[in-house]
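Homework-ish question, so no full write-ups if that breaks the rules, but can someone show me the predicted structure for this set?
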Amino acid sequence: MISKELVAASAKPMILSILARGESYGYELIQHVRKLSDGEMNWKDGMLYPVLHRLEDQGLIRSEWRNGESRRKRKYYAITPKGKKAFEAERIQWNRVHSALVKSWEVRLCQS
Amino acid sequence: MEPRPFRFGQIMGGKTVPVLDRLIREWRSRMRQEEAFTGTDLDELESHLRDEVEALQNKGLSEEEAFLISARRLGDGDRLGEEFLKINSGTIWKQRIFWMVGGYFLFNFFLTLIHTAQSAYLFWIPWGNVPTSFAGPLFRVPVVPGVLAMFLIWLLYFRLTQKSSKIGRIFQFVHAERRGKILGILLLLAALSIALAGREIFLAFFARMVTPQLMGQIILANGFFDIIFKLFLAMFFVRLAAWFLSQKKERA
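A: Not a homework solution, just the prediction itself:
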């Protein structure tokens, strides 16, 4: 199971990257994350919504109440141009962190 | 006839409320205890809850079981409320101020009703000098400039809050920007103060020229006008606040 801090830190890039592929609503987003992480990233379901609202306040995503494929109304979120830029920036940062970590592990392997 | 098996859905006025609807209604009223959630927040959480319940029911759980599990997964009001409070605190404060000022206006309106009844008792009934016509000069003195002021303020408000592109630059600034909105509201409040102060000065000036008894009647006429005016103020304020608070929605 991935730690709470790491889950919280990766929420923003995760949401942005899922929404970059197409609009979605809260429940579906959570299902996506579960599937992508093989159930290792466990969000306390309700906690997603404050994060979404904060991203909306920052203008990275926008929302709309709409009847989707079902009869019930849902609040759909979509990424904005500003959000796409933020997503690219996040991706570069996370890639750097990732590659730095990988390198550091390789170094250790060589030493041992 | 066999007695119908008892279902958890309550019978209310002959209509059966589905179990899930009742459970969700109870859940909403529990969540509403927390100040942190706005109405649409709860709508969104409810929509999530219903999705989850549906998914669990498809796995063979009963409605109640599915609801209990979904609600627990969603998180309890305390912890969720903490998170929502962080993002909603601005709105919550605005709403508090809104109700405070709205409440003041309502209080003021009732105070005016009482005061007017008082002066009616003091000036009219004992003297028996009820004006013959409500269109008489005594009523025109405070009412005509007052109504004019109300009309002008209302007009100014519409000019300020309208979206049309035909209107001038100042109005567009007022509409588009936060600072503009504050400026617009200050402008309206200034107009309101001038109208109010003008009436007081007018009355004070008039009071020097008439007998106390006549002044009593004027105060009474003024009181009648005040009732209308305070009602106008309360309504005006509610519209103004709704316009000011609507900012977030427009931007989205």
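Now go work out the reasoning yourself. Hint: The CA atoms of residues 60 and 82 of chain A lie 5 Å apart.
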